[in-house]
Design goal:
Chain lengths: 132, 132
Amino acid sequence: MSAIDKLSPEYRRLLELPLYGHLGTIRPDETVQVNPMWYEFDGTHVRFTHTTTRQKFRNLQHNPSMSLSIVDPDEPTHYLEVRGMLVETIPDPEGAFYVHLGERYGKPLGGTPADAADRVILVMSIERTTKQ
Amino acid sequence: MSAIDKLSPEYRRLLELPLYGHLGTIRPDETVQVNPMWYEFDGTHVRFTHTTTRQKFRNLQHNPSMSLSIVDPDEPTHYLEVRGMLVETIPDPEGAFYVHLGERYGKPLGGTPADAADRVILVMSIERTTKQ
């Protein structure tokens, strides 16, 4: 049974809603970085929009470990953490996935993003979950 | 000028309010962990309640790096990340700081926590900030 199959609907819902997750990565100097991120769960992986020019991308080239923490908006002492790694980086040179996430989160971009040429989709595996 | 002194009131406010921060640490196997945490900023350091028996404590014995990400509740595309390290661990054998944080966050514990004997205060330095 996979880590995803073990999730109850109550916690799986946190992966499916357009919430702000906090993504942890490890910098090349062995310090930790955490940033809020838009995301989309495709039933197997978690997908993020990012660019190849930013620190998180460099971090993931050095160490593919990723952890996403999501708080339940209805009861903030409940949360889900999913841990895995970067398994694929998909070019998104029109920024289409960024545009899609902007709409999903109610923040439409109103056109192609200026950094579209550098845009990629980060695909994260889910190997472990912890919750409270 | 310290990283804290450089913060505008708009972002310093995120450290001062009783929000849910997401704390990143690095596990001994070089994977990343992120969890929501109550916190209190004392003007210099960020303080958390924790126990000596839990994974985050073991992580910090191995690598003291810490990063706390806080989203602006009024505009979730704004956030503050503070990065630093564990600089002190203060025993809290009555769980008094845990009780204090419970009150600060509107979740009073109603007495001494069951794990009081293992309770500690984690004191995090602030060395860098990033914001959006």
